[in-house]
Specification:
CATH superfamily: Class I glutamine amidotransferase (GATase) domain
Mean pLDDT: 96
Shape: globular
Strand content: 25-35%
Radius of gyration: 16 Å
CATH class: Alpha Beta
Number of strands: 16
CATH topology: Rossmann fold
CATH architecture: 3-Layer(aba) Sandwich
Number of domains: 1
Low-confidence stretches: none
Helix content: 10-25%
Structural class: alpha/beta
């Protein structure tokens, strides 16, 4: 039986993503893993997260999971979600400056304070709700129509250094990167576990992905 480890470092609604993964493929063994051995033993890894980057990185450092994530993300199919995507980059503007895992060169920046749409209406931060995603070809978009809507909740977004690492963009109101990847690693800013049928399709694609492009 194939297995997927959901990394438990004390932040995020793990039961929601675990339930969604199980629903996406009932044949897969889903494990909530907080130790290196359990994470590295699994066939696939999911790195979820909500909250602040400084707290995230402190938790990963204190538990020793930062090194485990770096090892796992370079050796087997790996999916980052929301804060778990942002933490894969070099650093974040959050809390003045927070160093991240550096798996994908780039930065995490905050939406500008005063955002307005084309009609001049004020846009709220955090960006919250359903938004379209413009895809760049990748196996995890299989059977998902381009410009499909997914559910977002975030105040910061990724700015990768290399355009080759960009696999999806959305708008609020200007374009921003919402899906990144490199080799066997893929990550999204939105929450597939909250994105109904197409979110489950993305998780199903991940559970059937061998990590190749």
């Amino acid at each position: 039986m194939s297995s997927v480890a959901v990394i438990d470092y004390g932040m995020g609604n793990l039961h929601s993503i675990a339930k969604a993964l199980q629903h996406a493929d009932s044949r897969v063994k889903v494990v909530l893993a907080s130790d290196s051995a359990s994470i590295l033993k699994a066939d696939r890894i999911v790195f979820p997260g909500v909250g602040g980057m400084r707290d995230c990185m402190q938790a990963l450092t204190q538990t020793g999971l930062a090194d485990t994530i770096i090892q796992a993300a370079t050796s087997k199919p790996f999916l980052g979600i929301c804060l778990g995507m942002q933490a894969l980059l070099s650093d974040s503007e959050e809390n003045q400056h927070t160093d991240c895992l550096g798996l994908i060169p780039g930065h995490v920046v905050r939406f500008p304070q005063k955002l307005t749409d084309k009609a001049g209406n004020t846009l709220k931060i955090p960006h919250m709700g359903w938004n379209q995603v413009k895809q760049v070809t990748h196996p995890l978009w299989r059977h998902i129509p381009d410009n499909s809507r997914f559910y977002f909740v975030h105040s910061y977004y990724a700015v990768p250094d290399n355009p080759a690492h960009v696999f999806g963009r959305s708008e609020y109101p200007e374009p921003f990167v919402c899906a990144i990847g490199k080799d066997n690693l893929f990550a999204v800013q939105f929450h597939p576990e909250k994105s109904q049928k197409l979110g489950l399709q993305l998780l199903k694609n991940f559970l059937n992905w061998d990590g190749s492009l």
